[in-house]
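chain and backbone:
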Amino acid sequence: MSTAVKPRTSARRLVRRAVSVPLERRAPTPASARRRRRLRTYALIDSAAILLASLAAIAGARATGAEVESLVWLVGFDVLALALLRVRGLYEFRLRPSLVDELVQILAATAIAATVVIAARVLLAPDDQAAGQTVRLWAFVTAYLAAGRAGYSWSERRAWLRGEGMLNTIIIGAGTVGQLVARRLRERPELGLHPVGFLDKEPRVAEEMTVDLPVLGASWDLEAQVEKHEIGHVIVSFSTAPSSVLLGLVRRCRRLGLEISLVPRLFEEVTNRVGVEHLGGLAMLRIQQNDPRGWQFLVKYALDRVAGLTLLLALAPAFGVLALLVRLTSSGPVFYRQPRIGLDGQEFDVLKFRTMREAPETEGEADAEWAGKFARDPAEIVAPAAAVAAPADRRTPIGRMLRRLSLDELPQILNIVRGEMSLIGPRPERTSMVRSFEQHVYRYGDRHRVKSGLTGWAQVHGLRGKTSLTDRIEWDNYYIENWSPWLDLRILFLTIPAVLSGRGAE
């Protein structure tokens, strides 16, 4: 990795000029202009979708002999829907949310628009057809908007995965957090941000997290590097530079028309429920945390047992067929029991369909051996399943199929009914592993604040099997601190494609 260069007189003059030039005299960079064109494209696609949806609603009404909505109310609904999409931030640059999040925002905006139009029609021009006409228009507009967004998002993500059209990004600070940011961006090209390097006068790099990105210079090199690499986005992480220098960097980025993201101090405690308050001119973050001991989780666990019992009854025939296949294709018990750690560090026996020809009696010894190895070398943080893999493949043919589709996990519904597990939560880990991980893996013990789950936030994002343990812990704790009924529904929705893909299945 290259080191920061010493400041030159010409570079210093360049910085002074950049700071002194008013905002209106600074021309936007090519990357920022491209970003604005992208956002305008979204607005045009939404406008076209709403227009086509309105025409389709009119055609549908005439085809069925229904009364057509008046042009005034139709245009009013369309304009209000577009305005609400703008208010909800769908035409602003941000780290790419999932398509599900965008569709929820669209549904919320169009639903509010429909409610306002119906209320206005009832108050200003009472009409028995008001509700029906508006609901029909709402359905068409919502469907067309969702289809337009999904199509364009799909094509855009495909281009990003090929490395095309991404915004070049500079990261301020090359320390541990800056390295983590760079690694995350590389792992998720669908975000549309391509890291090209760091700006840091005195980089402090944790060797085990180093990525092969250069330090392009220090704060005074910002303008030169933005022009050289056509930078469109800047992420400010942690740096040894004083606050006045970082503040100056942010202001210069604004003058250049760049998008800016800030990694806050104590970012581990920042959740989706953070609010901003002001004490005079001093901004403060008000952090509202989920309480795993609160009534919300008590309700969640009660609903888990009801849902588990319902699933058990509904899947009873499938359970019987799978149990029979396991029993007929190999000798041994139908179920495999393994000690795991769940809520508050309590041990329980997790249930699975047996997928091997013989019970792995040496598994406990292998676990203990690997846990000891990990304790001697904490940097070796890999998935336990990969670390203790058996020297020979003892899976039965039916066992391979069960693991490929995660059907071997179905008996854990019994653990849910017994109250040992939840339908959604962090996956439970083996007892011998947990004792070592709690001592060496950052925030590992925090995941035991809630019950273990049959599926979870980490699993639906592919973090299972031979994947990074530290990443898995990060996603598990994100789930706990940002839990909501909607997040649980979203995980259930994402579980189906995650299972069918077989990604990470062992």
